[in-house]
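Pipeline run #58 for the internal structure catalog. This entry was flagged by the ingest filter as a single-chain record with no existing model, so it goes straight to prediction. Upstream metadata was stripped on purpose; only the residue string is passed forward. Reviewer on rotation: M.T. Logging verbosity set to normal.
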Amino acid sequence: MSFVFEPEPRVTLPIKGSGQLFPVRRVYCVGRNYAEHAREMGHDPDREPPFFFQKNPDNLLPIPDGETGNFPYPSKTEDVHHEIELALALKAGGTDIPVDQAMACVYGYAAAFDMTRRDLQGQAKKAGRPWEIGKAFEHSAPCTALVPAEEVGDIGDRRIWARVDGAIRQDGRTSAMIWNIPETIAYLSGLFELRAGDVILTGTPAGVGAVTRGQVLEGGVEGIGTLRLRVA
């Protein structure tokens, strides 16, 4: 058997302090998983069941430590927003994973931005259509290298923040998630069969906002890493 054309290389994420690479299978994102962010988007933050959308694996844009990456301003939009998130990467999966076993599936963590074409997402919402046009465009998930879970320890209460041109925009704690990490993994595994290589973006705190060409965007998660981007 042969391919009709040469396939694209496998999407991978670097692992901090290692020459190894993490092979990415799927990218899931949790919507409105911080109460204050739910309020700023005009929604009730009561603990309703979580919902999910997906980005494509090749939307991930790893930024090396200490470097300023380029985020190309995407097409067909005039309202691109930053959303800083804790990302987790799975080394194992399954279906209907119990909450008390979910953390055993986690390989490591990264800080990531869920960049969003907010105007296109808003249009899709009003029309009752999927969000991918606003969420799953090229370079829409800049991220740091992964840090193995055993080097991180308890991730349950870490500062998560973002600033634009030096001014703080988002400043929260991972403890403010409506659905915490093991609950998120357990719930998602009831909807999809999770596998090693899956990446989950766990939601963003309040303070999301627009970026414009030429601005410098920074964000990070305490004990995980910081990424720095210039909006190109």
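catalog note: The chain has one domain: 12-231.
catalog note: The radius of gyration is 17 Å.
status: ready for reviewer M.T.
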